[in-house]
Amino acid sequence: SQTIKPLVAGNWKMNGLRSHLDVASEIAAGISSELAGKVDAMICAPATLIQLLAQSTSATALRIGGEDCHSAESGAHTGDISAEMLADAGATAVIVGHSERRTDHGETDALVKAKAEAAWRAGLVAIICVGETESERKAGRAVEVVSGQLAGSIPDGATAQNTILAYEPVWAIGTGLTPTSGDVEEIHWEMREALIARLGAQGADMRLLYGGSVKPGNAQELMGVKNVDGALVGGASLKATDFLGILAAYA
Ligand code: PEP
């Protein structure tokens, strides 16, 4: 397998007005060409900001992504946004299956899979999220739950180029809690084995992100775990100094 170039992707969630564009500019300005050679950086933003962000960062190393998409290309789906629309606005990737979508909107593995295929259809990279809840972990079911989500959410045809997998334990998102390095290593090893078994070399080279309360203070340790190829960052992506502090784990 090749050496995997890590990715640190921010997820702004339902945060950010046009006044927040400066944060992305500040992040982009803080990525030296040397750092850009070692790690990729992306901000996944609300749909209303994507075109503006893509324009204001077009000459920089920062890439822009969406946070969700509909599975269809167009049609009678009021309020929804297609992957083609995100690509048209300047996104290069889209998060699908975030736990907040799975919880707030009842998204199933099958739907997440259809959304990932929609992302590819539009030329976007699909960032597919999986992760167990607190009660599932307490019941000793973390590996089983993540394996099931992985099997059900990743479409056939996934490659190291068109898909990124993010392990985000639900209980670690926005809570300040993180799993131990050993727990992250265990899950990422299981994901890697499952991906290799299913996709061969493409699974060996696929980027596996960790997400859940990543901060500048814990980034180095978490990013140093075997089979962790970067981070998906919520809260700490809203402040340029925090996001740059996480990227610095790869400096
Ligand atoms: C997320 O929601 O993708 C996330 C990782 O959030 P936070 O970093 O705030 O825990």
Task: Provide structural commentary.
By secondary structure, the chain is of the alpha/beta class. It has one domain: TIM Barrel (Alpha-Beta Barrel). The chain is built from twelve helices and eight strands. Helix 3 (47-56) links the parallel strand 2 and strand 3. The longest helix has 19 residues, at 181-199. The mean pLDDT is 97. The chain binds phosphoenolpyruvate. The site of phosphoenolpyruvate has 13 residues, from strand 8. Residues 11, 168, 173-174, 211-214, 232-236 line the site of phosphoenolpyruvate (PEP).
Helix/strand layout:
Layout: E1 7-11, H1 21-29, H2 33-38, E2 40-44, H3 47-56, E3 62-66, H4 83-89, E4 93-96, H5 99-104, H6 109-121, E5 125-130, H7 134-138, H8 142-153, E6 163-167, H9 181-199, H10 201-205, E7 207-211, H11 216-223, E8 230-233, H12 240-247
Parallel strand pairs: 1-2, 1-8, 2-3, 3-4, 4-5, 5-6, 6-7, 7-8
The chain binds phosphoenolpyruvate (PEP).
Phosphoenolpyruvate binds at residues 11, 168, 173-174, 211-214, 232-236.
Task: Give descriptors for this structure.
251 residues, 8-stranded parallel barrel, alpha/beta, TIM Barrel, binds phosphoenolpyruvate
Helices and strands, in order, run as: EHHEHEHEHHEHHEHHEHEH
What is the level 1 CATH name? Alpha Beta
Alpha carbon gap, first and last residue? 23 Å
Strand order of the largest sheet: 1-2-3-4-5-6-7-8
How many structural domains can be distinguished in the coordinates? Answer: 1
Radius of gyration: 17 Å
Mean pLDDT: 97
**If classified by CATH, what would the architecture be?**
Alpha-Beta Barrel
Bound molecules: phosphoenolpyruvate
Number of helices: 12
Strand content: 15-25%
Poorly predicted regions: none
CATH superfamily: Aldolase class I
| Structural class determined from secondary elements | alpha/beta
The total beta strand count reads 8
What percent of residues adopt helix (DSSP H or I)?
A: 40-55%
Q: What form results from the Cα inertia axes?
A: globular
The biggest beta sheet, please?
Answer: 8 strands, parallel, barrel
The CATH topology comes to TIM Barrel
